[in-house]
From TrEMBL:
It is an enzyme of class 6 (ligase). It comes from Pseudochryseolinea flava. The gene is asnS. PANTHER family: ASPARAGINE--TRNA LIGASE, MITOCHONDRIAL-RELATED (PTHR22594:SF34), ASPARTYL/LYSYL-TRNA SYNTHETASE (PTHR22594). This is Asparagine--tRNA ligase. It catalyses: tRNA(Asn) + L-asparagine + ATP = L-asparaginyl-tRNA(Asn) + AMP + diphosphate + H(+). One of its GO terms (molecular function) is ATP binding.
Length: 477
């Protein structure tokens, strides 16, 4: 019999037809009720075995985590909350699971505990739901851009350029794994010149993306990016995925409009297509909220937060206006964080961002026109001589979810900035040539994919929205 996925079975009218399902046992109760899950949906299907006719030795092997195949009649279920169940006629154990050793018990485990079991945690409701939503979001990213005529460009992972200045990088070295060259102390000698120069893992595909925007018009990248920052926070990973659209003939305002449309599309897509998983994650987030002190609970539940963001315009605010608001607010008498901003020109801390989004405006904020000195060299210089056409999108509970800018398309201005910042002009020759040969106004931004998934799933630690999180001290496999 061909196996049918449980998601499909649960949507099939039960008329006693014979079906086969395969999956992992979640629970086995009263020697007859198997809750079976195959990852196609958060829901289990109930498979009922007849213990009077089933071999005792088989029943014993129906432990949590065991992989089985069941064949039987699909019949209406008398149990509450499920439309159908399988009346099992044939049961096969595909993979035993020793209950004594299996780390996942049919109870709630802490996320910290599950992080240690990264190879098994996808078998829990929480992680399977997060991963299905993550998949849906990746699909929606491509759909959004494809529908608008953007081309998906694969920018290099290994790169010689260090131009972004986004943070510390991972160095790429080569090694003959069969026969690594060793020094007299037995230490491996890494060769570093495979590409004829030092290379790193990319921190952003933007600069390469720009070269394609000035040829194809509208492009985007969507790939892994690497930052060797030693930051142990709930918002940073050493390896994360970033989506970077880059558009010829866009200015900063077009860029801000696209960023809002894109985020709203993704959130709407999740609401429309991930209903069951979001319902589950909503309940989960509610329980977490209840455990917090009253004044730290968010006012809206997950689903309401998503609807709000999908339906309301984001607040546009210049950096200068933001500083004024922050200077004039005393939101938290104990912390007095407003005094952390000594003067115009200082970068905002995440607590400032959160204040603006969560307390002051109570909606997503797009901050723009930042001081040039706290932003990257490639951002377009404004006429005031102090600011650049940068923009960050700040989200409730997340902080910065998008960073972007209009790019400096004027050759002389860009070259001067490169000199001012002592950047290696000779390494940026190709980037400068773009401004020599048919330069055009253009703009783009980067969305941190995991930060999006945090927002959409209501999870609170970025390590829980990627299959194998990479952070300082964590790359066991
Ligand atoms: O603000 P960032 O550094 O911008 C860039 O890399 C630009 N090249 C983007 C562009 O204009 N094409 O990073 C963009 C986004 C951030 O807003 C954040 O969401 C995410 O990437 N991000 C991280 N996510 C997880 N872990 C980290 N260490 C991250 N660093 C940035
Ligand atoms: Mg940024």
């Amino acid at each position: 019999m061909t196996r049918i996925k449980i998601k499909e079975l649960l949507a099939t009218p039960p008329t006693g037809q014979t079906v086969t399902a395969k999956g992992w046992v979640r629970t086995f109760r009263n020697n007859q009720f198997i809750a079976l899950n195959d990852g196609s949906t958060i829901q289990n299907i109930q498979a009922v075995v007849d213990f009077t006719t089933t071999d005792e030795s088989i029943l014993k092997r129906l432990t949590t985590g065991a992989c089985i195949s069941v064949t039987g009649e699909l019949i209406p279920s008398p149990a509450k909350g499920q439309t159908c169940e399988i009346k099992v006629t044939t049961l096969e154990i595909l993979g035993d699971c020793d209950a004594e050793q299996y780390p996942l018990q049919p109870k709630k485990h802490s996320l910290e505990f599950l992080r240690e079991k990264a190879h098994l945690r996808a078998r829990t409701n929480t992680f399977s739901a997060v991963m299905r939503v993550r998949h849906a979001m990746a699909f929606a990213v491509h759909k959004f851009f494809n529908d608008r005529g953007f081309s998906y460009i694969h920018t290099p992972i290994i790169t010689g350029s260090d131009a972004e200045g986004a943070g510390a990088m991972f160095r790429v070295t080569t090694l003959d794994a069969q026969n690594p060259p060793r020094d007299e102390n037995g230490k491996i000698n890494y060769k570093e010149d495979f590409f004829g120069r030092e290379t790193n893992l990319t921190v952003s595909g933007q600069l390469e993306g720009e070269t394609y925007a000035l040829a194809l018009g509208d492009i985007y990248t969507f790939g892994p990016t690497f930052r060797a920052e030693n930051s142990n926070t709930t918002r940073h990973l050493a390896e994360f995925w970033m989506i970077e659209p880059e558009m010829a003939f866009y200015d900063i305002n077009d860029n801000m409009k696209l960023a809002q449309a894109f985020l709203q599309y993704l959130v709407r897509y999740a609401l429309d297509n991930c209903g069951e998983d979001l319902e589950f994650l909503n309940k989960r987030a509610q329980e977490e909220e209840q455990a917090k002190p009253q004044d730290q609970r968010s006012e809206l539940g997950l689903l309401d937060r998503l609807k709000f963001v999908a339906e309301n315009d984001f607040q546009h605010l210049s950096y200068t206006e933001a500083i004024d608001i922050l200077k004039n607010s005393t939101p938290n008498k104990k912390k007095k964080f407003q005094y952390l901003i000594h003067e115009w020109g200082v970068d905002l801390q995440s607590e400032h961002e959160r204040f603006l989004v969560e307390k002051h405006f109570k909606k997503p904020v797009i901050l723009y026109n930042y001081p040039a000195n706290i932003k990257a060299f490639y951002m377009r210089q404004n006429e005031d001589g102090k600011t650049v056409a940068a923009m960050d999108v700040l989200f409730p509970g997340i902080g910065e979810i998008i960073g972007g800018s209009q790019r400096e398309e004027r050759y002389e201005r860009l070259l001067n900035r490169i000199h001012e910042l002592n950047l290696p002009e000779e390494e940026l020759w190709w980037y400068l040539e773009l401004r020599k040969f048919g330069s055009a106004p253009h703009a783009g931004f980067g969305l941190g994919f995991e930060r999006l998934i945090l927002f959409v799933t209501g999870m609170t630690n970025i390590r829980d929205v990627i299959a194998y999180p990479r952070f300082p001290g964590n790359a066991a496999f």
